[in-house]
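[job 4417] fold queue: 2 targets
>>> target A
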Amino acid sequence: MQTISLKQATSGMVLARDVLKPDTASSVLICGKGMELTDALIERLQRMGITRVTVQGHPVAGEGEATLEEQLLRLDVRFKRHEKDPLMAKLKDVYRRLIIRTVEM
C-alpha cells in the first residue's frame, strides 16, 4: 500500500483506503476501498480538492527509491558469489519474497 499524490495516480490503480471528503467535520465517504481509479474519477477527485490517495501495491517509486525490479536486481548481485550454496539460495529466496511482499502492501 502506498500513499501518493493524486497527480501521480493513473487509471487502473486500486484504492487501498477509503477517500473521505476533506472539508467536512463528519467524514463523508467519496470512494470506497477497492475501487479502481479511472481518468474521469481522478479528475473528479481533483475538482473536489482531494490531493492524496492510498493505493494498493507500490506503483510509484519516490525520489531515491528503487523500483521492484531494481531491488530484485540488487539482490541477485549481492548473492552472485553464493549461487551454488543451497543455504544461501534459501536465504536469497526469503529476501526476495520479503521485498515483493513489502512492495505489494
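>>> target B
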Amino acid sequence: MAETGQMLDPFVDHSVRKGVISFGLGPYGYDIRLDRTYKTIQGEVDLIDPHTILPEDFEAHEDERIIIPPGKFILGKSLEYFRIPKKILGIVFGKSTYARAGILVNVTPLEPEWSGFLTISIANTGSMPVCIYPMQGIAQVIFLESDDLPLFSYQDLGGKYNQQQEITVPKIDP
C-alpha cells in the first residue's frame, strides 16, 4: 500500500540502520523519522489547558540536534506524510533506543482515512537533558488491516486534525 497507494511518503522499502537510529520498512510495520521542525511552549507556564492553549503559545524551531531538558516535552512532526486507507489502523510506539534514554513518544492511533503529517509528543521523563536526532527514527508504526469497513472513518467524522501539514497544537471543537 505504501508503494502503490502512497500510504506514506517518502517510503523507504528497507531498514536503514548503520550509524543512525533505524528507520524504514520493518518486519511488521514501519519506523518513521522525525522532521527537523519542532515546537516548544514559550516561557514558563503554570498550566497547559487544552481548552485554552493557542498556537502562539508555542515557539517553532528547526535544528540538526534537539536537546530536551529534564521533565520537558516538545511537539515534533513526522518526516513522512500519511494517507491511511479506510480498512487500515496504525498504532504508534516509541523507538526502544529513545525509551532507554528516558524519552517517551506519544502519538494517538492513525485512524482509517486520516491523512497528514503526524504531530508527535516527545517527553524527557529523566533527570538529565536528552539529545534526539531529526531525520532519524523516532517511532514504529504497526498497521492493522480489517476484513470489514469501519462504521465510519476519521474523514467521515470531519476530524479536526485531518490533512495537517504542520505541527498542530491541541484543539477543542466549539
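[job 4417] complete. Note on B: The chain has two helices and twelve strands.
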